[in-house]
Amino acid sequence: MPLLRIHLDSDRTTARRVLQLHQAGRTHHESREAARAQVWRQGHTPAGDPVFIGITNGRRNVQLLYDVEVYSGAAG
């Protein structure tokens, strides 16, 4: 299944918290659900849970990165 890379705008504090949770084997549910919603907005159907990949190193604009498997074809 194809992967879709999702970029979510964030602030540095939240990004650090999401990264810490990921490193501890836990999930930041709010950002994961935001990534899922972004997939739907882009016209795709998620085939699984979003997988946290990391954060960008922007000085001003920090983004959370998620990969989401999507079904081939149009959204359902």
SSE map:
Layout: E1 3-10, H1 12-23, H2 29-41, E2 51-55, E3 62-69
Antiparallel strand pairs: 1-3, 2-3
Structure explained in plain terms:
The chain has 76 residues and is of the alpha+beta class. The protein has helices at residues 12-23, 29-41; strands at 3-10, 51-55, 62-69. It has one domain.
- Count of separate structural domains: 1
Q: Compute the number of strand runs.
A: 3
Helix content: 25-40%
Distance between the termini: 16 Å
Low-pLDDT ranges: none
What is the spatial order of strands in the main beta sheet? 1-3-2
| Biggest β-sheet strands, sense, barrel | 3 strands, antiparallel
- Summed up, the helix count is 2
Q: Judging from the principal axes of the Cα atoms, what is the shape?
A: globular
Radius of gyration from the alpha-carbon trace, in angstroms: 13 Å
Mean pLDDT: 93
Structural class: alpha+beta
Estimate the strand proportion. 25-35%
Order of helices and strands: EHHEE
Question: How is this structure best summarized?
Answer:
The chain is α+β, with helices and mostly antiparallel strands and 76 residues long.
